[in-house]
Amino acid sequence: MKKIIFICTGNICRSAMAHHYMQKRLYDKNLQNECLVTSCGTSAYSQDVSTNNAIEVMKKYGVDLKNHRATPIEYSNIAECDLIICMTEKHKQLVKYLYPKLSSKVYTLKEYNGADSSDINISDPWGYDIKTYEKCAEEIVENVDKLINKFLGE
């Protein structure tokens, strides 16, 4: 079974959305036994909940984030993962610094999908309005769909 982890700052918006969206898509495609999906945050508070806006925007994609709980990176399964997907270049550089032996497995989500190097970050919607969350969710969904096809050879 392949293992993938999504990483952002607090693990309550971006990485949580990516994690649970990918998990849902794998179930939809009957691929849940092919890949274990997790997420964590570089500055997460253990057991923190997703923001109300993140919960609300993911309903559109059939994803329920109400039971998501944040995981700090130091308590994650990162060392076991085949692919480490960060939301920004800053997260990517921090992960490579903290876990240098894992460097070859670390990408930003957009970078993994072949995006131009000038556009590889997914901006943090935390503290912004629902429209900002909607834009962020759309970006994540589009890129996670591409990632599934590439990572699992769909």
Q: N- to C-terminal separation?
A: 15 Å
What is the annotated CATH architecture?
3-Layer(aba) Sandwich
Overall number of domains: 1
Portion in strands: 5-15%
Q: What is the H/E string? A: EHEHEHEHH
What name is given to the CATH topology?
Answer: Rossmann fold
CATH class: Alpha Beta
Tell me what you see in this structure:
It is a single chain. The protein has 154 residues and is α/β, with parallel strands linked by helices. The protein has one domain (2-151): 3-Layer(aba) Sandwich (Rossmann fold). 38% of the residues lie in helices and 14% in strands. A four-stranded parallel beta sheet has the order 2-1-3-4, sandwiched between helices. The radius of gyration is 14 Å and the shape is globular. The protein starts with a strand and ends with a helix.
What are the salient characteristics of this protein?
alpha/beta; 14% strand; four-stranded parallel β-sheet; Rossmann fold; 154 residues; 5 helices
Task: Give a short overview.
The chain is an alpha/beta fold and 154 residues long.
Write the layout of secondary structure elements.
Layout: E1 2-8, H1 14-28, E2 35-41, H2 52-58, E3 83-86, H3 89-98, E4 106-108, H4 109-112, H5 130-151
Parallel strand pairs: 1-2, 1-3, 3-4
